[in-house]
């Protein structure tokens, strides 16, 4: 029996960050593409809704609302780190899109709710900092 202590494996000087881990994966590029597509869809849908509020004209169908909520779903999937918040936002966006699609028209108060909910969502995500990834806390 040997009385020598077991050899420890050499430890790296720094733990790999999430950027180092994702540098070679296609998942990072897919998330970036989802962020771009989701933001663009939200912008196009929100701009049409905002202009109809300020101009006083009616929307020609539910397409801008569907674009907005589809973009929100794609954006949330790519951007929000907390899975509970991510899937909650996605479920609410999909449910509202299906409700507007079923109802068939967007009233003025619907547009106001979409506008102020967007303002609240942007303020929430603008003023909260992202939590570091659990895997990089070692």
The percent range for helix content is: 55-70%
Task: Summarize the biggest pleated sheet.
Answer: none
Percent strand: under 5%
Distance between the termini: 34 Å
Total strands:
0
What does this structure look like?
15% of the residues are buried. The two termini are 34 Å apart. 67% of the residues lie in helices and 0% in strands. α2 runs antiparallel to α3, α2 crosses α5 and α3 packs antiparallel against α4. The protein is an all-alpha fold and 138 residues long. It is built from five helices and no strands.
Q: What's the short version?
A:
The chain has 138 residues and is an all-alpha fold.
What keyword list fits this structure?
138 residues, mainly alpha, 5 helices, 0% strand, elongated
Write the layout of secondary structure elements.
Blueprint: H1 18-22, H2 26-55, H3 63-79, H4 83-103, H5 108-127
């Amino acid at each position: 029996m040997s009385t020598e202590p077991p050899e420890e494996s050499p430890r790296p000087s720094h733990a790999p960050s999430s950027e180092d881990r994702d540098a070679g994966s296609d998942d990072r590029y897919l998330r970036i593409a989802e962020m771009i597509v989701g933001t663009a869809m939200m912008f196009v849908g929100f701009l049409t809704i905002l202009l109809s509020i300020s101009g006083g004209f009616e929307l020609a169908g539910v397409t801008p609302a569907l674009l907005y909520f589809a973009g929100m779903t794609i954006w949330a999937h790519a951007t929000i780190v907390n899975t509970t918040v991510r899937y909650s936002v996605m479920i609410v966006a999909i449910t509202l899109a299906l409700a507007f699609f079923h109802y068939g028209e967007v009233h003025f108060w619907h547009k106001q709710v979409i506008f102020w909910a967007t303002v609240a969502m942007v303020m929430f995500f603008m003023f909260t900092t992202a939590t570091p990834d659990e895997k990089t806390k070692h």
